[in-house]
Amino acid sequence: MIPAGRARVIAAAPPAGQVRLGAASGRWVVLATVLGTGMAMLDMTAVNVALPAIGRQLAASLDGLQWIVSGYTLALAGLILLGGSLGDRLGRRRVFLAGVLWFALASALCGLAPTIGVLIAARILQGIGGALLVPGSLAIIQASFAREARPRAIGAWSGLSGVAAAAGPLLGGWLVVTAGWRWVFLINLPVAAVVIVVSLRRLPESRAEGGRPGFDVAGAVLAALALAGISYALIGVPAGAGAGAVGAAAAAGVAAAVAFIAVERARGRSVAGPPPMLPLGIFASRQFSLINVITFCVYAAFGGELFLLVLELQAGAGFSALAAGSALLPVTCLMLVLSPRTAALAQRAGPRRPLAAGLLTCAAALLLMLRIGVHARYLTDVLPAVVVFGLGLTLVVSPLTVTVLASADVRHAGLASGVNNAVARAASLVAVAGLPAITGLDSAGYRSPDQLTRGFHLAMIVCAALLVTASVLAITMIDDRVLRDDLPARMTSGARG
Fold first, then answer.
1. Smallest Cα–Cα separation from 32: which of 202, 187, 185, 170?
2. CA 386, 326, 72, 429: dihedral to nearest 10 degrees?
3. What is the spatial distance between Cα 43 and Cα 171, in angstroms, rounded to a whole number?
4. Interhelix angle 217-239/62-90, nearest 10 degrees
5. Could you tell me if 106 and 126 are in contact, meaning their C-beta atoms sit under 8 angstroms apart?
6. What's the pLDDT score for residue 241?
7. How far apart are alpha carbons 278 and 276 in whole angstroms?
8. Taking the alpha carbons of 220, 426, 358, 41 in that order, is the dihedral positive or negative?
């Protein structure tokens, strides 16, 4: 027998697939999912601003700072597919809530970390929580709202989540200056409490029906090992690791990646045992595959740019943590005002042109960042690039999110979200690990303003090239009809778009 209190909680949540954005139930769903995802996104960007302060207090080298970022991203990217699959099978709200709670506990450990090693370990634990909550939040949006309301709901989700990510540097800078870097992590605790309460009362439960029992633990382990090996090799080069260790890590990472594909293919063909964490058949949709290639280019550029920009502003140009965080405030404002409109634009006119235009605009912004150097001034050197970047970003985030979900069947909302998030985080991981090696930055260069500036400039050129590549792919290969109801089925069956 269900207790009366519990019955009221269940009754307060609307049925999945019937939620409307204009109704109170729709606003509660958006609030809970945005706060959950925003907590994870904000933490990623806020931590970047805190890196110099963490490095000073915990005596961390450049590779230590890279692992603070990469340890989180490694766990997130390696396990996010499993998180999406768990949500589809066990219940998206249930797994989302588990991720929020895990993330909060790991955040507390980060805030109390006495050494750089403990902080990196706690960040890995944070990434595990993020792998549960991030794909679940978007899958809840996709599964909860009525089909005609999904584009606007996803636009609101992506825009507000983007605002949280963009606000991270400002909040991080303010917390570093006023309370200390530890509060960049501890601020997550009250946010998580709100998310848990709202989710229990207002989120509908949904799951994919049918399927084989069990979970692909081997696939999850191999994916994490692949990313860990490749990341260690990339970070180890500028850190001065021996050639043997770097080569062994790279070989192990590549071998794990090959084994992952083989295991997933075998599980997909078998009718016994657990289903694959990544059913390779999802890539039968040409549009889904293409949008994930574009996602990799985009988030490699964004991840590398954000990691190095906040270091350059503080260690290169001499900005304070608060000034460096405030420098990106225009991005937050532009995302808040314009992002909800771009999802509707993509739905009405198709995603191809907004995406291509936004990516070229972001590339131009990164080239404008070549003006940022040792004696940079905010109004003349930083602000123009930041404003242009914010304008471009508003044209990218919502159309990209709407398109990737529209390219997959709604039954696989968690999987599609997980795949796209895994691609995005893996791209950011590779960029943060690899750009210092490509640009010649090592621990000595990180502490030299002139060397840091030279490396930063070269990195911005590389990132701009990635965005131009993504723009070319978008304008030439994305089908504007991808948001029509019947296109994913036709794409999966092999029909040309």
1. 202
2. 20
3. 10
4. 170
5. yes
6. 58
7. 5
8. positive
User: Rounded to the nearest 5°, which phi and psi values hold at 173?
Assistant: -60, -40
What local confidence, expressed as pLDDT, does residue 228 receive? Answer: 81
Residues facing residue 19 across a β-bridge: 145
- The C-alpha angle 417, 422, 425, rounded to 5 degrees, equals 125
User: Are 14 and 25 in contact, with CB atoms under 8 Å apart?
Assistant: yes
- For the chain, 497 residues long, the average pLDDT of each consecutive 10-residue run is 41 56 77 87 83 89 84 82 80 92 96 94 93 83 77 75 76 90 94 92 77 73 84 67 75 91 86 77 82 93 90 90 87 78 73 91 97 92 95 87 74 69 84 82 73 92 96 90 51 34
Cα angle value 427/137/8 (rounded, 5°)? 165
CA-CA distance, 94 to 79, in Å (whole number)?
17
Q: How many residues would you count in the chain? A: 497
Q: What pLDDT, on the 0 to 100 scale, is given for residue 486?
A: 40
pLDDT of residue 496: 32
pTM, to two decimals:
0.75
Contacts of 29 (CB under 8 A, 6+ apart): 19, 140, 141, 144, 145, 153, 202, 203, 204
CA-nearest of 401, 298, 296 to 347 is 401
Q: Determine the 3-state secondary structure of 384 from DSSP.
A: helix
pLDDT score for 409? 66
Of residues 269, 264, 284, the one with CA closest to residue 223? 264
Three-class SS of residue 19?
A: strand
C-alpha angle 390-393-396 in degrees, rounded to nearest 5: 165
- Helix, strand and coil content of the chain, in percent to the nearest 5, comes to 80, 0, 15
Q: What is the DSSP string of 443-473?
A: HHHHT-HHHHHHHHHHHHHHHHHHHHHHHHH
Handedness of CA 412, 418, 422, 428 (dihedral sign): positive
Is the alpha carbon torsion for 235, 173, 446, 469 positive or negative? positive
Name, in order, each residue with C-beta under 8 angstroms of 84's C-beta and a sequence gap of 6 or more: 135, 136, 139, 414, 415, 416, 417, 418, 419, 421
In angstroms, the first-to-last Cα distance of the chain is 52
